[in-house]
Amino acid sequence: MRERATRNLARAAARTRTFALTAATFLFALGVSGCFIGGGNGGPLVHTGPMQTENPSVELAGAKSVHAHLKMAAGELDVSGGSSKLMDGTVSYNVPEWKPDISYSVNSGSGSLMVMQPDQNHTTMGGVKYEWNLHFNNRVPLELAIEMGAGESKLNLADLELQNLDVQVGAGDSTIDLTGDWKQDVSVSLQGGVGELHVKLPRDIAVRVTVQGGLGSVDAPDFQRDGSDYVNSAVGKTKNTIEVHITGGIGEVHLELGGGSHEIV
């Protein structure tokens, strides 16, 4: 009887911990996304309107390298290469106040680009549409920083001249394709929130992935373990290395090796 009671208490405690974690995850996601809570100050209810579409376009203006910073509170973000300019693309939204703010400057050959969802203190209750589909120049060395509050992001960066990547995600799923034919070292920092993170990496270039913190699992069938790191078979055999640091997050991390096709499915 005593052993059975002990087992029942242990199962009850486990259920309590699971419920608490699930509830905390749910509340965190709501707070970040603003689906019910909004901008954090409990402002007036946002009013949606008809869908509007903009086609932003930014010229290189003589820049030899660029640091780009994308900041979206909530929505869908799609980033890829293929632009003949520094950046072009399409943005769609049905909240008039959310037309993205874009600023760009060049100093001594170094460009600085900011694309940002305007600050807002409204409460949203659903029906909001906000989408960025942005293309960057394939040839200019690029440092890319992305802050994503809530939503879905797809980053197809395989064709870019990427130097550094820093991604922070609050709530939502992210897919990142880094299977490029890199001619230089690439440093990648990914900070997860609530959701799944899918990272596709090159097979024939050395890759080392460090995962720290977080409460989710890591799925990496294509990788070998080197202590606490995940590495591919090209480590120690190529001049260039892709260093990936993943921290935090509640959800699953999926690591995959690819090559040939750069398309995110």
Polypeptide structure, described:
This protein has 265 residues and is mainly β. It has one domain (52-258). It has one helix and 18 strands. The protein has one helix at residues 2-33, and strands at 52-54, 57-58, 65-83, 87-93, 101-107, 110-116, 130-137, 142-156, 162-171, 174-177, 186-191, 197-202, 206-212, 218-219, 224-226, 229-231, 241-247, 253-258. The chain has an 18-stranded mixed sheet that branches. The longest helix has 32 residues, at 2-33. It starts with a helix and ends in a 7-residue tail after the last strand. The relative contact order is 0.15. The model is unreliable at 1-41 and 260-265 (pLDDT under 50).
Question: How would you summarize the topology of this molecule?
Answer:
Blueprint: H1 2-33, E1 52-54, E2 57-58, E3 65-83, E4 87-93, E5 101-107, E6 110-116, E7 130-137, E8 142-156, E9 162-171, E10 174-177, E11 186-191, E12 197-202, E13 206-212, E14 218-219, E15 224-226, E16 229-231, E17 241-247, E18 253-258
Parallel strand pairs: 3-6, 3-7, 3-8, 8-9, 8-10, 9-11, 10-12, 11-17, 12-18, 13-17, 14-18
Antiparallel strand pairs: 1-4, 2-4, 4-7, 5-6, 13-16, 15-16
Outline type: globular
Mean pLDDT: 83
Pick out the low-confidence regions: 1-41, 260-265
Could you give the distance between the termini? Answer: 54 Å
How many DSSP E strands? 18
Helix count from the secondary structure assignment: 1
Biggest sheet layout: 18 strands, mixed
Task: Return Rg in Å.
Answer: 21 Å
State which percent range the strand residues make up. Answer: over 45%
Helix content class: 10-25%
User: Which structural class do you get from the secondary structure elements?
Assistant: mainly beta
H and E string: HEEEEEEEEEEEEEEEEEE
Task: Give the tally of structural domains.
Answer: 1
